[in-house]
Each structure stands twice: as structure tokens, then as C-alpha cells.
Amino acid sequence: MQNIREGSEKLLEKGRPVALFSSLKVELSAIIVFSTAIAFVMAWFLLKVGLSGWIAMPVTMVVALGITYVFSRGLTAPLKQMRDAAESMADGRYDVRVNADERRNDEVGQLARSFNVMAGELEHADKMRRDMVANVSHELRTPVSALQAMLENLADGVVEPTEANMNRILDQTHRLSDLIAFLLDLSRMEAGAASLNTEQFNFADFLDETVEPLEIADAGHNHNVRFRIPRSITLEGDKDRLRQLFTNVISNAFKHSDDDTDILIQAHEDHIRGTVVTNVVNFGTQIPRSERADIFRRFVKGNNGVGTESGGTGIGLSIARWAAGLHGGTVRVVDDARGPDFEITLPKHHDGDHNQGSPAPAAL
What we know:
The chain is of the alpha+beta class and about 375 residues long. Helices cover about 55% and strands about 10% of the residues. The strands form two sheets. A five-stranded mixed beta sheet has the order 2-4-5-7-6, with helices on one face. Strands 1-3 form a two-stranded antiparallel ribbon. Helix 4 runs antiparallel to helix 5 and helix 7 runs antiparallel to helix 9.
């Protein structure tokens, strides 16, 4: 019975006589005019054949109401589906969708398509949150297990507290610290905004300081970082937030580059727009255009390549986009024949308005 009812509703929806209108008001008006015209013609005919007005008028009204009801069901069917879908989503089922006719351009059709987009985003966010629990558990377990084993060996006298062994323990604590920092950044993103301590600084010196610890962590992979940055460029912003931005983008380049390959960091000033444009290019596998927007979504992890980090939590590039947005800037992947090219555009001077109520990156 349910399938029959849904099938009839689909048939009514597809067969709507007002499907060409782009406004719900116009559609409702057309239904009223059509029903009134049918009722008038029917009343005239019944009276002409000699039927009493006391009989003709009720029959005419029933027919007019029937026509209005049949046609209006096609208009309101998606609303009922959205109600049922919203109830299912409230119970934790995010895979439900509304049968949205792409040919329908009125407000209800637009609402149905927007509802499906929203449902898809919620389903993706729910899946990514579940995956993040597993990712974080794995990321925490690895360094904790390593630390436990190393400390037990030291306590039992199996190994000596040499400088090399102490450095291994320190590396694991750094890994734990990085993961905790990621989680703290995620909480700031969820809060939606963060205060900025802006200052003016030399951009080339800032990038040198940012890349240096990344190159140390990259030891053994032999990535060669090449700079093409004029020493005259200055930038105004929060150095800590901007360091998050560039660290995550450059770390991503390290992670997805083969050993013994180059990574190019170049920058220039756009004097017309008053911005500083930085391109971070690695010479690895190109990112398909269809995936370029997704990699900046929270908890989305790209294909793991040879690099310095583990699989990660999938929020590094999302944090980068958040930090850029706080400064009124952007980060995106642009076409470049050489390889994946992350272009970061930042205002040269901070006007103080970008960090007020900046929204956290969506699950887009």
C-alpha cells in the first residue's frame, strides 16, 4: 500500500499541469483559475440540461474541490516527503532523500533540492565524525604504545638512556603534542572565531622560520624546498594563526611528495588588490578538479603518499582554510602543469573585521 501511494504521488508530481511555472503563487493561481473555469462550465451545462440548481451547485463544488485536491497533491508531495525525511534524520538516519524533480523550478522544487544537499552534507559530517573517532584513537594509540615500550625498557634496564633513545621518546611526545594541538584547533573552528594578535613582519623571514622545523622533521626523505620570495614583501597578521596555515599546507606538500623531489614556495604582491599571493607547489600527482573542494572539508583525508607524517586526522587543510578566512584570505588548489599547486591569498594589511564572527568551515 505504501509503495502504491508513493507511486501515485510520483505520477501526480510528474504529470502536474503547471510544471512550467517558476513560482508557487502562480501555480496555485493557475489551479484556482482552472478549477473555477471547470466549475463554471459544468454548472452552466447542468443548468442548461434542466437540472435543479440545488443539485447542480453542490455537484459543481465537489468536482471543483476534487480537481483542486488532485492537482495540489502534486505541489505538496515534496513537502510531505521532507517532513518524513526530517523525522528520519532526527532519529539518526541521514541517508534519506526527497524525490526532487530537476525540471521543477518553483519554491518547493528549489527547497527539495536544497534539502537533499543539506541531507548529503549531514550524512557526510556524521560519517566523518565517526571516522575521526577511529582515526584519533589510532593516532593516540601508536605514540602512547611506543612511549610505554620505550619507558618500560628503560625502567627494566634493557636499554640505556642514551641521547638517541631520549630523542626517540621526545619524537613520540612531539607527535602527541601535535595531535592535541589539532584537536584544540578543531574546537576553535567549532567555536567559529578566534581573536587575532596582528603585527607586521617580513614575509620571507616568516616562511624561513615556518619551514625550518618541517625540514628537520622531514629528515630521511630528502625533499628540497626552493624559495622564490622577494625579501621586500611584508605582511600584517597573526603570526601564530598564519603559521598554522602555512605549516599545514607545506606539510601536506611534504606528505604527498616522493622522496628526493622538490617543493617550490613562491610569492608575489598583487598591488591592485592589495594582497600577497603564495603558491606552494609539489611535483607529484595532480589533484582532480572534482576533489579540490573536498580536500578542505573537515576529516577528509587524501591519498597517503610518502611523507613525514602518519595518515593524520584529516583536518589539517580545513584548519588552513579557517586560518586564512580569519584574515580575510583564501586557500585553494589552482591549475598548474607542474603539479598540485596550493594558492594562498592574504590581504597585505589586516583591517580588524575578519575575525569578528568568522564562521567555522562547513561539512560543504
